[in-house]
């Protein structure tokens, strides 16, 4: 078996000319959308759900929302400017005991379920097909008491893995 080796040598000057760039780049000075109207704190997890977004901060909720909507006329001018572009909140998924950062939620592959853990070792699972914002399952075990930092579904959404601050990994076999 023979292998062909190609050596590519690039010479870059300290101040390259625009015509000598390796690839074209685009500079964007302003975002096309920005808002503080969904969360009031650091957002540490976000996922696309079709054209909508699911996002989570430290306020014990995952919010499903879309950019756009009506400006709030009940606010003064400086508050409208602070909130940024308007958003439409589609649904809020509330849970408890998770007012810290770096706790990630999961969206399964067919986009039918979301799940998140909390500081008490519980895992909340919601069905996106249901109109109710209450969890369809709350998974808990007496030995799981540490913060659940991240969860993830397997390919067919029947197994959920959660990882905790104490180094444990929990497998949950979900029921339909």
Pattern of helices and strands: EEEHEEEEEEEE
Largest sheet: 4 strands, antiparallel
What is the SS-derived class?
A: mainly beta
Percentage of residues in DSSP E strands: 25-35%
Question: What is the 3D form?
Answer: globular
How many strands in all? Answer: 11
Residue windows where pLDDT falls under 50 for at least 5 positions? none
Number of helices: 1
Strand order of the largest sheet: 1-2-3-4
How far apart lie the N and C ends? 52 Å
Using only C-alpha atoms, the radius of gyration works out to 22 Å
The residue-averaged pLDDT reads 84
- Percent helix, as a range, is under 10%
Outline the structure in words.
Helix content is about 5%, strand content about 30%. It contains one helix and eleven strands; from the N terminus they run E-E-E-H-E-E-E-E-E-E-E-E. The strands form three sheets. It has a four-stranded antiparallel beta sheet with strand order 1-2-3-4, with no helix packed on it. A four-stranded antiparallel beta sheet has the order 5-6-7-8, with no helix packed on it. The termini are far apart.
